[in-house]
Amino acid sequence: MNNKYDVIVVGGGPAGLAAASEAAKNSGVRVALIERDAFLGGILNQCIHTGFGLHHYKEELTGTEYAHRGIMSIEASSVDVYLEAMVMSIDEGHTVTLISQTLGYVKLWGGAIILAMGCRERARGSVIIPGTRPSGIFTAGTAQRYVNIEGDQVGKRVFILGSGDIGLIMARRMTLEGAQVLGVAELMPFSSGLTRNIVQCLEDFDIPLFLSHTVVKIEGETRLEQITIAKVDADYRPISGTEKTFACDTLLLSVGLIPENELSRQMALEMHALTRGPVINNLMQTSMPSVFACGNVAQVHDLVDHVSEEAERAGKHTAIFSKTVVPMLEKAITVETDDAFGMVSPQKLVRFDFENQPLQTAALRLRVKKPYTSAWLVIKSGDVQLMRLRKNHLTPGEMVHIAVDLNAMPLESETIKVYLEV
Hints:
This protein is of the alpha/beta class. It has three domains: 1-121 and 256-325, FAD/NAD(P)-binding domain, CATH 3.50.50.60; 123-255, FAD/NAD(P)-binding domain (3-Layer(bba) Sandwich); 329-422, Sandwich (Immunoglobulin-like), CATH 2.60.40. The protein contains eight helices and 27 strands. Strands 1, 2, 5, 6, 7, 8 and 19 form a seven-stranded mixed β-sheet that branches. A five-stranded parallel β-sheet has the order 10-17-11-12-13. β14 and β15 (224-231) form a beta hairpin. The protein is globular and about 65 Å long.
């Protein structure tokens, strides 16, 4: 068994599939792909609804069809795949230690590492809802797996806390399975999901959305019997007298996603407070030069198409790095934002790739904290204005994608600032 690879990809979801496939396209680059599940595809395997692939493949696919495209690409490549393999550690010498159900305790060595572990859901403990602890409370993704993969029905009278995309999609899915979805409560005064999901999953099925509301009480002995919601004030505190009670047997939680970064923290990578992922540059390189990160492990995306695009960029540059390793002589440019934005990625920009070829543009992804119906998005380097774009629709549920002209930046630039003018 040859345990030495040029590139090792951790995670076999959409990001890992795209990154490994792209890295393997470089002649002579040996790639390993490690996945803890028994199948490649990650969360896409339980996404039987459509809406995938419109950007990346220019056609509408289900999540499973989208995953199949990536899996077929891996099977047609020279990538070595390790399934049912859990990565335990990655040390500074690029040794990846994993436990495999078939191979046992294994050590692999990689010239470069790509982190593509995805993200996980926040559970009940993250939102601290008072009340009893009966059965019938699931994260929306867990319920999705039970229904779409295991073929189980999780409940008949359902309420959903949080208007994230998984929660919205499960509102429709549960309705189609014959359950009665009583409503969706959202703490914020706006939905955190895509507009298309609000329309297709709630409005089309007459499911009420209670904005600025949260669950304040859970009741039930063995099984959930009822929940109480209440309106919240500007400080998100429940307002007495606004309570509404719903008799239900199931509560689904769609209260946010957290990038899966235990390995990143174990490796002492520089982390970003807003994205909760590693600080990366536009080559997808982290603070440890030989480690790259892409997909939801770097920041939570709204569309898997953008995950694949980002991962392909990571795979391309990581493969070149593993063979060339040209030192970065320039100092990276730091990307800063004002308080209007809840995240920006990447957080660093470089002007040259690992073959010392100049880069023309850098793709920035941003997410606003609240909706705006009219604003100017401005990017400056010192007093030099690099970009000024009119935006008539900005919402937290949809990332803002812009291409920054690197040639327009003054050579002495150390930072650029992205802000909104309302």
